[in-house]
């Protein structure tokens, strides 16, 4: 499902920083993989390159058989929207929208071309993550764990092949964090979605099928 070949990213704003240094890896369809390592090891950079939010300095990223480096403009945006779901440490919910509206938000501009009823799918996803009774609550009326569940439902609205989660439990207490990890694990097993989680938390990493450890931009 995901292949990187000699992936390198150098940031040149100021003194050059080699965030990734020749990373080659393969992640199979349906795997749940954790990426661990100290701050600055390249975890977030790797997720951003796989998720097409950034471009590598050199090397290749192939996701679901597509060399994403060949995509530009609308083709790149369509690929990201159709195949990848993002979950971040910060929930990035719109405070003036309800949970249901936040889940619908990524596909509202495309709703006329959808083959399903957007509101119904958003409601089904919120029910699947245990928030069927919170559909019309604003983010400020939800706990941190509930807000992250909304963010996960939003990541699933486009039926992605891959979920990329960057420190998804970082702003949660241990109980809420464990619930989010269990939810991601459940979605992985029941829906077959490939999950890649960057985390500092060893307990989160131990829930994965496999752990990739990064240090100084390299797999160790």
By CATH, the superfamily comes out as P-loop containing nucleotide triphosphate hydrolases
CATH architecture: 3-Layer(aba) Sandwich
Mean pLDDT: 94
* Uncertain runs: none
* CATH C-level class: Alpha Beta
Give the fraction of residues assigned to helices: 25-40%
Radius of gyration: 17 Å
Overall geometric form: globular
Profile the largest sheet: 6 strands, mixed
N-C termini distance: 21 Å
What is the succession of H and E elements? EEEHEEHEHHHEHEHEE
Looking across the biggest beta sheet, what order are the strands in?
6-7-8-3-9-10
The domain count comes to 1
Q: What is the CATH third-level topology name?
A: Rossmann fold
> Which class best fits the helix and strand makeup?
alpha/beta
Total helical elements: 7
Strand content: 25-35%
The tally of beta strands, per DSSP, is: 10
């Amino acid at each position: 499902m995901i292949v990187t070949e000699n992936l390198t990213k150098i940031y040149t704003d100021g003194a050059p920083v080699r965030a990734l240094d020749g990373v080659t890896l393969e992640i199979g369809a349906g795997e749940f993989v954790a990426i661990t390592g100290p701050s600055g090891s390249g975890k977030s950079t790797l997720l951003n390159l796989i998720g097409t939010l950034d471009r590598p300095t050199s090397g290749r990223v192939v996701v679901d058989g597509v060399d994403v480096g060949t995509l530009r403009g609308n083709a790149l945006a369509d690929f990201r929207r159709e195949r990848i779901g993002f979950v971040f440490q910060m929930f990035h919910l719109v405070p003036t929208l309800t949970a249901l509206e936040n889940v619908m938000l990524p596909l509202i501009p495309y709703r006329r071309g959808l083959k399903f009823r957007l509101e119904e799918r958003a409601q089904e996803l919120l029910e699947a993550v245990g928030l069927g009774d919170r559909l019309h609550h604003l983010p400020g009326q939800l706990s941190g764990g509930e807000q992250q569940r909304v963010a996960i439902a939003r990541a699933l609205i486009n039926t992605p092949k891959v979920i990329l989660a960057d420190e998804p439990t970082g702003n949660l207490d241990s109980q809420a964090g464990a619930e989010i990890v269990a939810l991601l694990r459940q979605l992985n097993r029941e829906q077959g979605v490939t999950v890649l989680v960057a985390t500092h938390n060893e307990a989160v990493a131990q829930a994965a099928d496999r752990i990739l450890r990064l240090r100084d931009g390299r797999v160790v």
